[in-house]
Design goal:
The complex is a heterodimer of chains A (312) and B (254). In chain A, α4 runs parallel beside α5 and α7 crosses α9. Chain A has an eight-stranded parallel sheet with strand order 3-14-13-10-9-8-7-4. Chain A has 312 residues and is an alpha/beta fold. Chain B is an alpha/beta fold and 254 residues long. Chain B has five helices and 16 strands. The radius of gyration of chain B is 17 Å and the shape is globular. Classes of the chains: A alpha/beta (312), B alpha/beta (254). The interface between A and B is medium-sized, with 36 and 31 residues. The structure holds flavin-adenine dinucleotide, flavin mononucleotide and FE2/S2 (inorganic) cluster. FE2/S2 (inorganic) cluster binds next to loops of chain B.
Amino acid sequence: MDKLRISLPGLELKNPIMPASGCFGFGREYSQFYDLSLLGSIMVKATTLEQRLGNPVPRVAETSSGMLNAIGLQNPGLEKVMNTELPWLSQYDLPVIANVAGSMVEDYVEVAKNISRAENVHALELNISCPNVKEGGIAFGTDPEVAKELTAKVKAVSDVPVYVKLSPNVADIKEMALAVEAGGADGLTMINTLVGMRLDHRTGKPVIANKTGGLSGPAIKPVALRMVYEVSQVTNLPIIAMGGISSAWDVIDFISAGASAAAVGTANFVNPFVCKEIIEELQAILDELEVEHIHDLKGRSWKVGETANYRA
Amino acid sequence: MIKVEKMKILSQKEIAEYIYELELQGPLVDEISMPGQFVHIKVKKANDPLLRRPISISSYDKNKQTMTLIYRATGAGTIELAQQTGDLNVMGPLGSGFPVEDVKGETAVLIGGGIGVPPLYECSKQLKARGKKVIHILGFESAEAVFYEDKFKALGPVYITTADGSYGTKGFVTDAAAQFNIKADIFYACGPVPMLNAVEKLFDKIPGYISMEQRMGCGIGACLACVCAVNGPELYKKVCTDGPVFPKGELVYG
Ligand SMILES: Cc1cc2nc3c(=O)[nH]c(=O)nc-3n(C[C@H](O)[C@H](O)[C@H](O)COP(=O)(O)OP(=O)(O)OC[C@H]3O[C@@H](n4cnc5c(N)ncnc54)[C@H](O)[C@@H]3O)c2cc1C
Ligand SMILES: Cc1cc2nc3c(=O)[nH]c(=O)nc-3n(C[C@H](O)[C@H](O)[C@H](O)COP(=O)(O)O)c2cc1C
Ligand code: FES
């Protein structure tokens, strides 16, 4: 599988495919379907300092080719994640990317410091972009100065490389990328969900109890692709891309746009085998395209003079 | 074990207004462990409708590897489902259902509202097979929406209520239960949340089980979409894996 093997800060991966945070729990449920060691990595559910109960229900609503969610970062809290979930995952040959969330800077720092010391955590994903928590959350993801400072503080305490997860709910995502790069980020993950809503036709009221939710799924792929295309041209940081990926060709698109790896979220709900299938199909597609290594396709959407090399 | 499988559609027909009965065949049936479990269906291979649809298993036959689902086709996904022929992408069986083993007492009352009626059918069959007397109180919107009356009658007495009074007793299932002074040793209920709440209040002296509905994402416990508030230290449980069936007294209504 050498065509798929990649190397990113903190992450030596068998392949560039991983489930996206919040869409795969801590892996237990999906381990019923296939061996998790097949995955490149796993981005586990957001972890906060204390247990969080999340938002009232309904928490999800379907939209055209997508879904809205407002889970509200429900998770068992740092201690339980450290003592139960991460040790359970260590039975697999699987580097973990820990998604870190909070509502205050001190929370992020505390979680990052501790969780980065877990043996199987090889990188952090700083979730500064959750649209579904009232305090903090998104403010960290929309103000470049705040994001830069938070990144620097987390970087200072983390034992492993720090990837920052960018929110698409900003006027200029390039500015955010450059800010967290200046703050010392080792990589970027993008995109988180787009804030949206759905109304009940009859009552005219929001379907989701939180009123708004984060849009994910195939509907957001064009937005995510455009953002990766823009950001990859202005920063040197590696990008793990997500947003509507459900096939190997979607992955090829994101790599072509400038990403180094790809994460799959909502598609796991539709097809629990999707990550495994994408990994298998990628290999075949690269053979078909006569590509030596998946990163030979990286950024070909904007790199001058390289598009003609392949028959894609 | 949970399977994801292309099941064969043996038949699909409209049995009441907007209500379809779908018979499926495949090895997934081997895995069903109790009445009241559900399956998660991808109605067609397309991005729209995107998500799977949770539908209860209404009855099953392990020898023939068949199961029957009954659903109301009024939304985008279920309307699409009603048009499917050939194969269907089904994930399941999911969740824990109605316990029917070691039930104390002689008589069980099964109370269903609308599309909450289907899973009670297998539950009633299995209780009857274990020597229990089964009484059914089934609530529907109107005469046109009534289904499976004869099938339930073959197992035990049936009281039908309709919201508009066009068939059976006018009103709610709990009205009928009080009016006919139904006595039982255990209850099983599935239907809208206000109905479940009313049933728990009316039958507060006997044990019982209720089946909950909630909007779902994954259907297997990973996404935390389908939680419901419960009494006890956890505060929330997942309908898809902890339920959909819960013992009486566990849910917090309101
Ligand atoms: C455990 C369980 C068992 C069920 N068993 C049955 C059954 O046997 N027969 C039956 O007719 N219905 C059953 N339902 C309800 C059924 O899932 C919904 O009616 C169906 O999902 C609606 O889809 P739609 O495409 O018609 O509506 P749409 O409005 O297009 O649905 C949009 C989204 O909302 C969700 N949704 C809408 N209504 C409900 C609801 N009441 N419960 C959960 N999700 C909903 C859909 O799944 C979809 O994701 C069950 C639900 C659950 C949770
Ligand atoms: C139900 C659900 C829960 C999510 N939870 C988190 C989370 O805890 N932390 C996070 O950073 N992103 C979370 N996300 C966002 C995803 O990781 C991902 O960025 C987004 O859904 C876009 O990818 P997709 O279109 O493949 O789903 C969640 C998404 C969904 C649908
Ligand atoms: S539907 Fe995902 S946890 Fe229940």
